[in-house]
Amino acid sequence: MNTKAATPGALPGNGTTGTTGAAPRVSPLLWVPTGYFTMALAYVMLTSVTAIMFKNLGMDNGKAAEYASYLILAYTIKPLFAPFVEMYRTKKFFVLCAQLTIGVGFGLVALAMSLPGYMAIMVGLFILLSFIGATQDIACDGVYVTALDTRTQSLYCGIQSLSWNVGPIVASGGMVYLSGWLHVNVFGHDPKVFGEAWIDSWRIVFFIVAGITLVMSAWHLRTMPEGSRAENAPASIGQALTILWDSFVTFFQKRDVWLMVGFAFLFRLSIGLLEKIGPFFMVDPVAKGGLGLSNELLGIVYGTYGLVAVLVGSLLGGFFVAKRGLKPTLFLLCCAVNIPNVTFLLMAMYQPTSLVAISAGVAIEKFFYGFGSVGFMIYLMQQLAPGKYSTTHYAFGTGLMGLCMMVTGAVSGHLQEWMGYVNYFWFVMAATIPSFLVTWFAPFHHKEA
Question: Among 298, 309, 119, which residue's Cα sits nearest to residue 195?
Fold first, then answer.
């Protein structure tokens, strides 16, 4: 899933998006693509790939989905500690420290797999790394919006978004594929048996990700600009707390705010229930109601075809909204996000063995998810965010979405185990109803840009 749209909330300012200081000495092409790729790699490894790893290591669906979902918390609440990052040193300093720590942390995860009680150690490391990863997001966004003038920001916006989306392809596609390939072809294990034999391949995967992150840290030491202080950045802890409190108060003073809060929280309700369970369904044995795919095939189908479909859908969705306008199309976009979830219900009912059919089912759902989700982000920008603290209020909206994904992800595995795949996917379809309701009643109080 593309979460790059959530990152503008990093700065606590009053609606300005950046400064217009001196032109950067180093071309943004040398650090914008690598900076946002590194952000996405850490995020996806922590919040999505860990769920597959937990599943491979023998954890049941309930716990695997729950533990991976809790790692979203730090990214959800990052607006609460973003002002404090603004106060100290430079933004580049925080980027480098975060990337160095994440690289070392992933290396420690790989080493911890050899220890007794490794699971508890890994989960503890993942929780710590999630907060450091969220700090990396805040600081890297800070460099982007303060080191580049507004014209350059607009010029590189597409590169920024594209670079972020390479991260999920590498993590959910490449790393998951590699784990399965190593498990079978290097270590000679049975891919259909889950358990501690998977430690060997996942250890190598985390060493590789650690190496990539450390290389990126060294690269950004040479190429990334320092980033200036954001406009209206707090000068003290007291001022930071005052700004946060005022942003909360003014947020809940908005007209029809609870309808907008409901929209932000519930629009992706069914997606949150599907996000972790979809990959589990792919790799679970046919006898348990799954499709019995290997990690290699999961990486290709989910991490490559699915993510490419999201990117294409997002581009076409953006063109569609730009041409027709958001207000007359928002409910249609909600239908695009939710109705194609029926592909998973159909696959659970018929359990196809054709890789083409499985890939088509995933691609259809992901394409329409990307197409419709554009409307969600634009609504937050144009209707929920405007006001004194537009960037922070936008972050509150995306934080509510993240909270929904965390809560639904945490319960999704337990519900699936209780219901079975077919009944669970019926439940996912029923969960689209609240999304339709909040979209139908979503207020429009600002003219579209």
Answer: 119
